[in-house]
Amino acid sequence: MSGVELEKSTTIDLRKKHIGPSCKIFFSHEPIKIVQAKGQYMYDENRQRYLDCINNVAHVGHCHPEVVNAGASQMALLNTNSRFLHDNIVLFAQKLQSTLPEKLSVCYFVNSGSEANDLALRMAWQYTGHKDVITLQNAYHGHVSSLIDISPYKFHQMSSYEMNPRVHVAPSPDVYRGKYRRDHPDPATAYADEVKDIIHKAEEKGGKIAAFIAESLQSCGGQVIPPWATSKKWHVRKAGGIFIADEVQVGFGRVGTHFWAFQLQGEDFVPDIVTMGKPIGNGHPLSCVVTTREVAEAFMSSGMEYFNTFGGNPVSCAIGLAVLEVIEKEDLQGNALRVGGYLCSLLEKHKEKHPLIGDIRGRGLFVGLELVRDKHKLTPATAEAQEVIYRLKEQHILLSADGPHRNVLKFKPPMCFTKEDVDLVVEKIDNILTEIEHTLGMTNKQNVDNEGGKRKASET
Amino acid sequence: MSGVELEKSTTIDLRKKHIGPSCKIFFSHEPIKIVQAKGQYMYDENRQRYLDCINNVAHVGHCHPEVVNAGASQMALLNTNSRFLHDNIVLFAQKLQSTLPEKLSVCYFVNSGSEANDLALRMAWQYTGHKDVITLQNAYHGHVSSLIDISPYKFHQMSSYEMNPRVHVAPSPDVYRGKYRRDHPDPATAYADEVKDIIHKAEEKGGKIAAFIAESLQSCGGQVIPPWATSKKWHVRKAGGIFIADEVQVGFGRVGTHFWAFQLQGEDFVPDIVTMGKPIGNGHPLSCVVTTREVAEAFMSSGMEYFNTFGGNPVSCAIGLAVLEVIEKEDLQGNALRVGGYLCSLLEKHKEKHPLIGDIRGRGLFVGLELVRDKHKLTPATAEAQEVIYRLKEQHILLSADGPHRNVLKFKPPMCFTKEDVDLVVEKIDNILTEIEHTLGMTNKQNVDNEGGKRKASET
Ligand SMILES: Cc1ncc(COP(=O)(O)O)c(C=O)c1O
Ligand SMILES: Cc1ncc(COP(=O)(O)O)c(C=O)c1O
């Protein structure tokens, strides 16, 4: 505060001393110290500008003045818990509801995606009276203990982890690298049948399905876009369970064509619970669970009050409302569609010439570029992906890699990202890939079949 | 926003429609709509002023200008995740550490008391390799599923609840109404021996203790002040477990003599983990887990990153730092000692004449006034406590009742509370109690022995 800036080395030393070593830092060898941000740009302590392609939390642009003003003026007026009546909470709930199918009408405001997903699980358990949960391979749903249990992305990191017997992991509906691929006649049904199997097996052991939880598009799992109408086929409702759509990363217009990613599954597909987070407050700790009246009443019938100290306070709600207003006013959903579409098409143009580019997939400003060493074997190009993001960083572009093999470059920039930004980042990636391929002696002769997924004998 | 205020009835209607029915409201028959607050005062939609005796979250006073400015200016500059280096997080951690015993040096910033306690449990499980947790009767530690399991205050509200077999409930060290009372020669040891028993029984069944979690003074449990040195005697470390001090309600100078309530147990008593929340950000969603290097390293050794999207962002940390600075600058801890002491002494003066006053207990600005129908049988005066808070509300004073019988009036006001505020609220309570006692035909003849706890034949 008070204007004094620490030397970067002092910041690093203090961080080592006082911040939990499990809290990782970007580019750990040479971390960046960011002191300011605006729109799609971040600035380091030397006022060097970075183009931000990764911070989906700063959804309407870093430090958007309307959001900042809404927060600042409400902070000066009143910030208290939701046991008092206040207009902000009801106006925010009402506006949020207007973006959703009518049935999804009851909101619970919380402070993080993790709080939202944990509450969704509690509701599912209470509503169904069942205990078992189905989750997807490589899924991440949050950091509290109940969610580590349903997050293979996390528990696979642990040296010793006992899987919760009430949790069942279904294959990720990844048509590039998953069990059923683009060459399968009906991957949606094939993935859904896997779930049917899981349900049968669980029931044979006396389990009963409370919920199926899934992101509408898998983020940490590798920017996975499921085949159309998969969600509708999950069989979970037939088993007495409910469907929880985790929109923490992919909601709020990011997919371009729709406000919510679950709507990509068809307008008639309505989850029982939707959880929201990250972009909802443009960085402010705010999240939400929205459900049906039916589920909400069942949850209440347990007799237990739900009280969350900070959840739904007037400041958080003022900020959430401002974010919704800015998305609308600046047509950021439309921008995501246009700019995201442009990004994918530009990447596609470069695909042919780069043996490292395995797959390009995206919806709006949610785009994955999967790098492989071999387009037939799909050998993950993990080190190469790291190399790309480190070199981009040197050129002041922030991108990251994710997925089970950390070989998927993921684009999820602030939604004010422009076509010029796309031109810049694609040009740099093109150059870096060319250099890496050159160093590795990779040629596009290898590129005989770029329809990833068809397993053919490889030339390498 | 935008200055338009809804009619109160519209706010109520929208709340019914769009906010989860499990989210309760104060004074549900005639809820208050609060639109503004300053210091220890809140204002309703008609600009009527209420004296706030309950909002311990607004620790340094509602909308403290220095806290608001710190938050607002940081919001305009940068708000992003803690994977980038930033001064605010390390400066805040350093300042927080300076209030704690040296061993407690590693911080994890999160967004709520619940996130903090869940993380503390995860650390305890990982560090000890054990699974069992001991908690206190009537304890409340948060709303996520892992914490409902260790919160008898919550799970007792449920019509059907299966207790987690890894959780063990020890008697609350309440020397007024608990198992061992003021007339016991050594209640601290007696309560500790109960824990020893629990540990034995758990171990006999093959359990192993990971942690004992307790508030240093029980809040929701009824403003309970344990006998001196109880915590030191809990036997938990001998069983291989660790001690988690939940300071979510009682930390940050509220107890007056010390900055942390666990320090009331003796300067040499150091918990393994301290969790903080509520007052830490004066209403901003912010919380923290502080632990030793040893526990932090063990937690890291699981191989799992800890990532919390909003935790430790520059805005939250700017606010946390400002709160610490204001506590210091305005000597709010000293104020809590002086004003809290004055409150207790003034209440004591009225004790004799009120048959309804069973017990007065407090440390600093954490004070409980337990109402009973019978000073010998200790029959909880639940309805009378409700009556008191409703009548106070009519006179524009906000107080609430808690504890397992909802008969403990609890004072936990913003720390800028003054002696004049005390005079006002005690006068009103004195009058209301007199009226209620008159209506009920209670006389102070019943008041033959006001040393609560000694069970004698009652006259009523
Ligand atoms: C899909 C998804 N769900 C939930 C979460 C948890 O959100 P938070 O970190 O706010 O608890 C995340 C965070 O990365 C996420 O990606
Ligand atoms: C002692 C204690 N611990 C933890 C919590 C949970 O805090 P939060 O509501 O911020 O999750 C509370 C909340 O009332 C509390 O009183």
UniProtKB/TrEMBL annotation, chains A, B:
Keyword Mitochondrion: yes
One Pfam assignment: Aminotran_3
Top-tier EC class: lyase
GO CC annotation terms, alphabetical: mitochondrion
Places the protein is found: Mitochondrion
InterPro entries: Aminotrans_3, Aminotrans_3_PPA_site, PyrdxlP-dep_Trfase, PyrdxlP-dep_Trfase_major, PyrdxlP-dep_Trfase_small
EC number of this enzyme: 4.2.3.2
Enzymatic reactions: phosphoethanolamine + H2O = acetaldehyde + NH4(+) + phosphate
Family: Belongs to the class-III pyridoxal-phosphate-dependent aminotransferase family.
Protein name per the record: Ethanolamine-phosphate phospho-lyase
